[in-house]
Write a structure and sequence with these properties.
Elements (H helix, E strand, L loop, with lengths): L4 E12 L2 E13 L4 E5 L6 H8 L7 E6 L2 E2 L2 H7 L3 E4 L13 H11 L5 H14 L16 H13 L5 E5 L7 H18 L2 E5 L3 H7 L2 E6 L2 E7 H6 L4 H8 L49 E5 L2 E4 L10
Helix pairs in contact: 3-4, 3-5, 4-5, 5-6
């Protein structure tokens, strides 16, 4: 099966007064049709930047993005714009407060010239029902709704042009805990029913474990591990992945003192460390880690790790 959307060796750099910020460096990954691929990592790891590149909202400094095998440039993006939609983190800032909800949801249809006014109104009504909102919501403004309801509106808007892929950028983090599970279940139900591909960006590995088919782990703009969800949670191969998983509370699991604990803070992307960028915080770093960039290893089928000394099978 060929990938729906693929990033090949993408890098993103931002010039600032303090120097060049290397937000993403040499990331390659692919989203398959109908799968849920999760991007995880600490704040500042480059997750959202990768998502924006794959959604066509950020041009990579280097590398290529391909859709169904075609290299994406501006002309191709215009042709396939309806197939890739995005749900942003902040449901309060993502919706135009001057527009009625029905117009917000229908906007992608108008921009893509899909259907006439009657057909678009029918599509809006169907989508409101699909995301669990009443039909009369179409004639109200976004500020009249709660955060969870606004995120439902944002999801309906993303679904309007019948995309093949939705990029969901931390769609739960701005919501109350009591609402997060509702939106998560809604996303999962819609993804399954519509057979959508979903690029799910999150720092919450408990949520990722509930939703993802595969998981890509980013650290300081680098992809350090990529694996099927079950394999990654059962036997992480990178020390950083193990540390992230060790921080997830699990019922009935005894945590060993010091296991997987990451020392210090993530280095600045203005001056990334030499060799392996994780070595200043890695509990098992050796001299070579500070000198040479690590190679890719495949400790198990479908699992790839960027590390000089991958963790052994069964290590957690």
């Amino acid at each position: 099966m060929s990938p729906l959307l693929e990033a090949r060796d993408i890098s993103v750099q931002f010039p600032t007064a303090a120097g060049l910020v290397r937000a993403v460096e040499g990331v390659s990954l692919a989203v398959q049709p109908g799968e849920v691929l999760a991007l995880v990592g600490e704040s500042g790891s480059g997750k959202s930047t990768v998502g924006f590149v794959l959604a066509g909202l950020q041009t990579p400094t280097r590398g290529q993005v391909l859709h169904d095998g075609r290299v994406l440039d501006r002309a191709v993006w215009r042709q396939i714009r309806r197939e890739v939609q995005i749900v942003f983190q902040d449901p309060f800032g993502a919706l135009d407060p001057r527009m009625l909800v029905g117009d917000i949801i229908a906007e992608p249809l108008r921009l893509q010239r899909l259907g006439n006014a009657v057909e678009r109104a029918a599509r809006v009504a169907l989508l409101l029902d699909q995301v669990g909102l009443p039909g009369e919501a179409a004639s109200r403004f976004a500020h009249e709704f709660s955060g969870g309801q606004r995120q439902r509106i944002a999801i309906a808007r993303a679904l309007a042009p019948k995309p093949r892929l939705i990029v969901a950028d931390e769609p739960l983090s701005a919501l109350d805990v009591s609402v997060q599970s509702q939106i998560l279940n809604l996303l999962k139900d819609i993804q399954t029913a519509e057979q959508l591909a979903l690029l799910f960006i999150s720092h919450d590995l408990a949520v990722v474990n509930h939703l993802a088919d595969r998981v890509a782990v980013l650290y300081l703009g680098r992809l350090v591990e990529l694996a099927p969800r079950a394999a990654l949670f059962a036997a992480p191969a990178h020390p950083y992945t193990r540390a992230l998983l060790d921080a997830v509370p699990r019922i009935g699991r005894k945590r060993l003192r010091g296991q997987g604990v990451i020392a210090g803070e993530m280095p600045s992307p203005l001056a990334p460390p030499s060799g392996c960028v994780f070595h200043p915080r890695c509990p098992q770093a050796q001299a070579i880690c500070a000198i040479l960039a690590p190679p890719w290893h495949e400790p198990r089928p479908g699992q790839a790790v960027l590390c000089h000394f991958p963790l052994g099978e069964g290590a957690q």
